[in-house]
User: Fold this.
Amino acid sequence: MSISEIAKSIGESATLKLNATAAALRAKGEPVIHLGGGEPKSKAPHDALTSAAALLNTGEVRYTPADGIPALKQAIIDYTEEFYRHRVEPRNVMASGGAKQAIMVALQTVLNPGDEVIFPVPYWVSYPDMARLCGAVPVPVLPADGSYYPCLDDIEQSVTAKTRVVIINSPNNPSGAMYSAEFIRDVVRFCERQDLYLIMDDIYQRLIFDGRKAISCFDFAEEKGDESKLIAVNGVSKQYAMTGFRLGWAVASAPLIKVMGRIQGHQTSGPSALSQQAAIGALTGDQSSVEDLRTTLENNRDILMDQLSGIEGVKVTKPDGTFYSLVDFRHYEEDSLKLAQYLIEEARVVTIPGVAFGLDGHLRISYCGSISDITQGIERIKLAVASYSPKESSQRSARAADLESLTEPRA
Ligand SMILES: Cc1ncc(COP(=O)(O)O)c(C=O)c1O
Assistant:
């Protein structure tokens, strides 16, 4: 079979394969604990459901404008004013089939083949393949100080004549790190000076802990009109626990949004009418579910940190937000695929290998599940790594080779 060079460059999903192993074990009655998840377990807000149901009840679920219906755009405008302190117009907004599609369409709008896309390590798994899908070159940037917090120097030193886009995701999947306002300010101003597009992936914007306040990239932008190259991406998936609705958005300059809408129109004709209606319900309805989710996650984070402190040799950076932590297991094993495979086989615990996020030797552990999953899962990991022998595990590399092409968990 002949497939395109671009298609050949796209990695297989790590989560899907790990899920398949976990599902096969579960089917055999094995008590698998999943600490690899990428979505909150709470229910979608009631207002989202009734809003979607009202449309469903009319029986008239039609095509919509490709960039979103006016009422949803208005809800996104109001959201932007509240959380970014930035007033925009409908022509600055494109609703999309998830934040993922908003990022993808933005990249397709601005990248030429051979252009470079910079993002800090650890990075969300989809960025490299999204860049490749545009024929562009992903440029992951490892913070020089070895932390999860990049500084402007890290970004600056990776810029070449081919750099066209910088992507910043804070709070970050997979580390949970929330970058400082100073760093966001520096990057916004640097990109303006260098005439680079800056995509701010803010999908975890409201899921932050310890009294932190959401940061707005627009606070630091000098150019806010048609010349702006700043693209803020957000959505309902995480904050409202609405991952399956597939509804996100981009806020950017009107000329950019116009072209993005055109591209999206040819791809999908726009997001589902039902999901748009649900998102209106979520954005304009009772907001208490967001705070409930946030406090649950903060509590889960604290429990996870406490549990992890009992595992000798691992290095933990306390997450500032999200529902992920990226834990350094290099004391036990440099090869995160091998270790993740070992933990499924020996402890029946699913984690995501850090290599998928650009940091081998680490595992992403989610805390969006139940408290008992977190405590039992970490207890099992603790026992399993205590008896881990890298040498014995080299026999496991044959099986881990199976997972070698894994580069991309879904969330
Ligand atoms: C950093 C990051 N950006 C974007 C997305 C995509 O979100 P959505 O479900 O809105 O497409 C995810 C999902 O896991 C994510 O972790």
